[in-house]
């Protein structure tokens, strides 16, 4: 997940804001550290494939993801993309 500063001109909820955040993340991945040190998590992908994305994230950071933990996160996550 990439966090970029809030764009006051466009806001992060507009297409321009979303593209600005993505551009910032992609720039950082190219210029800071090595590519294998980055893991890009897209909100849409996470909400649609929580278990798969969470497992990849846990593997990337080197922690175990017990089934009870994944189930708890799945139960507390929105499974459709919306503007909340």
Q: Please give the alpha-carbon distance between the first and last residues.
A: 17 Å
Per DSSP, what share of the residues sits in E-state strands of 2 or more residues?
Answer: under 5%
What structural class do you assign from the helix and strand content? mainly alpha
The figure for the number of domains is 2
Helix content: 40-55%
Major sheet size, sense and barrel closure = none
Order of helices and strands: HHHH
List the quaternary state of the chains: single chain
Low-confidence runs: 1-7
Shape: flat
Report the radius of gyration as a whole number of Å.
Answer: 15 Å
Count up the helices: 4
Number of strands: 0
Mean pLDDT: 77
């Amino acid at each position: 997940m990439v966090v970029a500063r809030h764009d006051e001109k466009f806001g992060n909820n507009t297409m321009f804001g979303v593209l600005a955040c993505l551009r910032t993340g992609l720039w950082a991945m190219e210029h800071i550290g090595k590519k294998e040190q980055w893991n890009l998590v897209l909100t849409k992908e996470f909400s649609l494939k929580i278990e798969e994305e969470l497992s990849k994230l846990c593997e990337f950071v080197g922690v175990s993801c017990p089934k009870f933990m994944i189930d708890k996160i799945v139960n507390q996550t929105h499974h459709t993309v919306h503007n909340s």
